[in-house]
Design goal:
Length: about 375
């Protein structure tokens, strides 16, 4: 569909106007699950009377209900739990690659209820926006409570003069695209855009391995290498939307040269294509090299050992710089932990500053739908102003 053939905004379910306290209560229930009123009041530092008014408003909007009764440990008194109503609203999540649109619908609890995948017809921004709008229209025919959307992509996404801007997206060939603003107008619902790794980091913090952590680091491995950080419960973006650019950290001064001309950096050793390039066996892709390594092929194992050293250097650097509670590893290139885990761990130990404890590593099994789900979580966080 061309831009000249664009349809009118579809519109979606209205998200209620919520105050700070109401958004805070909803966030606590989303992240930590059902909680008694006394526990919520303690966490947020509000009085029971104030909390009663807040929860009444959330119930009137259909976002929260009363759940089971549990006995409190000290007093033995019964206490009703407050529970999020996940089906009250739905959210659209989209992940854009250089050639594919991955889309999901989640409920308010970030559970995926529908998925869709299709090739990008044209990388021209207006055409991609039309394509996302058409996907939303099809989803909205079944899910008429979609309240917001989030779109994630590899690249630099920042805020300039109060407006979200995709400054650069190499895979899409974009520069200075006001994607969120244009999609909001097109879809008729609030839409945000974000760097895909930062969005995934925020999702892990709220709904994944990072729940309960005030500081968290995420490293993704696959087509590229990405980094996301949470410090003091806040996602780190950086002044120019470029925080976490560690993909060209030097590892081996005698190593191969990456596409940007750096010798022996992380990007020259760790991404899937870097491992393919290390062997240069005609017709063999990453999956084929993985099988060679599993069969004991010396060259394939050396390539993964080099990749493991690069990953260990990254983990040690992140631990030294940020001292996070947990470092999450994700992505379709995590087979490096299977084939070179010993190299990863030994390099981490060598890289750590004296006295720095070994970081807690959480290796997450990864499905590509998680990228799109993080877009839906971006929509949830936008409506809660996080």
């Amino acid at each position: 569909m061309s831009q000249s053939q664009s349809t009118a905004p579809v519109g979606g379910a209205t998200w209620p106007v919520l105050g700070d306290a109401e958004r805070g209560v909803l966030r606590e229930l989303l992240v930590h699950g059902p909680l008694p009123r006394a526990e919520i009041a303690r966490r947020l530092g509000v009085s029971r009377a104030s909390l009663t008014r807040v929860t009444r408003a959330l119930m009137e909007h259909g976002l929260v209900t009363e759940g089971d009764v549990e006995l409190r440990g000290v007093t033995g008194r019964p206490s009703e739990l407050l529970v999020v109503q996940p089906a009250a609203r739905h959210f659209l999540g989209v992940k854009l690659t250089g050639d594919t649109v991955f889309a999901v619908v989640t409920d308010l609890g970030a559970h995926i209820v529908a998925t869709h995948e299709e090739a990008i017809g044209s990388r021209e921004p207006g055409a991609v926006i039309d394509q996302v709008a058409a996907i939303y229209t099809r989803f909205a025919a079944t899910y008429d409570t979609i309240a917001a959307a989030g779109v994630t992509l590899a690249g630099d996404v920042t805020v300039i003069d109060g407006r979200q801007v995709v400054k650069v997206s190499q895979f899409l060939g974009w520069d200075d695209v006001h994607l969120a603003e244009r999609l909001t107008a097109k879809l008729g619902i609030p839409t945000s855009a974000e760097n895909d790794v930062r969005a995934l980091t925020a999702t892990e913090h709220w709904f994944g391995a990072g729940v309960g952590c005030s500081s968290l680091a995420l490293i993704t491995i696959g087509a590229g290498v990405g980094f996301g950080f949470v410090v003091d419960n806040r996602l780190v973006t950086g002044h120019h939307g470029r925080a976490g650019r560690l993909d060209h950290l030097p590892v081996d001064s005698a190593g191969p040269i990456c596409g940007s001309g750096h010798r022996g950096c992380v990007s020259a050793l760790l991404p899937n294509q870097a491992i393919v390039n290390a062997l240069r066996i005609a017709g063999l892709d990453f999956a084929g090299i993985v099988e060679l390594a599993r069969d004991g092929h010396g060259g394939a194992l050396r390539a993964f050992t080099d990749a493991g050293r690069a990953l260990g250097t990254l983990i040690g650097t992140v631990a030294n710089a940020l001292d996070p509670e947990k470092i999450v590893l994700a992505g379709d290139g995590l087979v490096v932990m299977e084939l070179a885990g010993d190299e990863v761990h030994s390099t981490v130990r060598q890289a750590l500053a004296p006295g720095t404890p070994a970081p807690t590593l959480d290796v997450q099994p990864f499905q590509f739908d998680e990228w799109a789900r993080s877009g839906a979580v971006l929509g949830i966080r936008t409506m809660l102003r996080f």
